[in-house]
């Protein structure tokens, strides 16, 4: 009986379940802060800029630990590294609801450590175990990230308003999925570190001096900056426009769900064309529409929230596809992914606090919309360069 149970838990189907569970935790624990950020501000008497650190400081953690993830996996194995990631998230999700400002920030950043490791290692795990099903599992992985984030955002305000612990209940709700994922992943830690069979003997290109690498990097980085600004401040923007906190949280969730759906739609199309510049234009157009719509026709905010998600999700998937399309070796692909995520998250980390400071100074969200329009223009410029059919 014991032997059967072991073999069942080590079957590929159980590993896929584990991957899906981990994917559910790679966005929601951080993005779920935004719908309750005003409640957190009131509890701790934070300025908008200080509150913005709750969503910007995890991005700095993402940048730092995106460089740590690969060496850690080589040292102890992908499975055990992901177990450490989940363990960090378990500790962080309970720590951040402890009634102190230090615990709030420390726990939130510990969760970010786990998410950073997962973001880098899960795609590697899929490639290592399911090389023939990468597109399918990546699509499911992306959808699960967006779906879980949308659900957490939609539940945030009801949990805050109708439970004794208020916003702490909302932040604690993600603990259920994190703990389930930790338990599901336990059988994987007994596996030996998986050796890479095909290592490239070619010298690595000096990506940090390569213009194509920088074009891909800033295309992803501008999108990350735009996305995390809206993840952080869209609910607050909507409430100042007259929407209820519950409606704002629902639109926040819709934005994230739309970002996942966009990826599912564009991924199969992109691979059939050698030149992705038309796809770049189609992906960025919804971003321009959403920003102008929120500025000029805020009454249709539900529609503009949908466009924010569709545009940013499409750009995200395009940028990820460029990691493979613009290189010639697997070592270059891994290096480009690490470079783009490191720089992209560093760039994105400036957004939430900067936009919070803008609002503190002006008491208006218009400067944020103008700033994001400029970012979208820069994103389009780098995207058109990165979308050409060229190789590093």
Descriptive notes:
The chain folds into 2 domains: 1-189, MFS general substrate transporter like domains (Growth Hormone, Chain: A, Up-down Bundle); 210-392, MFS general substrate transporter like domains (Growth Hormone, Chain: A, Up-down Bundle). Helices cover 79% and strands 0% of the residues. The protein has helices spanning 2-9, 12-23, 28-31, 37-44, 48-76, 78-95, 101-129, 134-162, 167-172, 175-185, 211-240, 245-270, 277-296, 301-325, 330-362, 366-386. With 392 residues, it is an all-alpha fold.
Short description:
This protein is mainly alpha-helical. It has 16 helices and no strands. The longest helix has 33 residues, at 330-362.
